């Protein structure tokens, strides 16, 4: 067993920030923090992702669909799909699960 402290993390520099907490071959887990008003610069990943919103509010666009997200919202994004958090109105903290581990299938894009 491994105990992971994946609590609420604030971005240290006022920009979107990803902090990885766990990496094994089959998956990785991290916290993605986006301050209110900041932009989400991420590009599509080569792995499937699950996002679980822990705190904050924003819009999220993926696969041509836009939804409002807040605490408890859970999103699945298949590998290579364009997606982005935007219109972040409250500091956003999201748990991010990659399967397999982020970057293990090649470069983003």
Description of the molecule:
The protein has 109 residues and is mostly beta strands. It has a single domain, classed as Jelly Rolls. 0% of the residues lie in helices and 52% in strands. It is built from no helices and 6 strands. Strands 1, 2, 3, 4, 5 and 6 form a 6-stranded antiparallel beta sheet that branches.
Q: What's the number of helices?
A: 0
The secondary-structure class comes to mainly beta
Classify the fold: give the CATH topology.
Jelly Rolls
Kindly state the mean pLDDT as a whole number?
Answer: 92
- What is the CATH C-level name? Mainly Beta
Please, what is the CATH homologous superfamily? Jelly Rolls
Question: Which oligomeric state applies?
Answer: single chain
* Number of beta-strand segments: 6
| Portion of residues within helices | under 10%
Main sheet attributes: strand count, strand direction, barrel closure: 6 strands, antiparallel
Q: What is the strand content?
A: over 45%
- Low-confidence stretches are none
- CATH 2nd-level architecture: Sandwich
Shape: globular
Order of helices and strands: EEEEEE
Distance between the termini: 33 Å
- Our count of domains comes out at 1
Query: Cα-atom Rg, whole angstroms?
Result: 13 Å
InterPro entries: Cupin_2, RmlC-like_jellyroll, RmlC_Cupin_sf
Pfam families: Cupin_2
Domain Cupin type-2: 32-96
Protein name: Cupin type-2 domain-containing protein
């Amino acid at each position: 067993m491994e105990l992971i402290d994946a609590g609420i993390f604030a971005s240290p520099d006022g920009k979107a920030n990803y902090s990885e907490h766990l990496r094994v071959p089959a998956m990785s887990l991290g916290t993605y923090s986006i301050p209110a008003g900041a932009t989400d610069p991420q590009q599509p990943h080569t792995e499937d992702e699950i996002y679980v919103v822990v705190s904050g509010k924003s819009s999220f666009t993926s696969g041509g669909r836009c939804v409002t997200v807040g605490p408890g919202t859970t999103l699945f994004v298949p590998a290579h799909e364009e997606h982005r958090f935007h219109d972040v109105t409250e500091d956003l903290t999201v748990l991010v699960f990659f399967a397999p581990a982020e970057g293990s299938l090649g470069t983003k894009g």
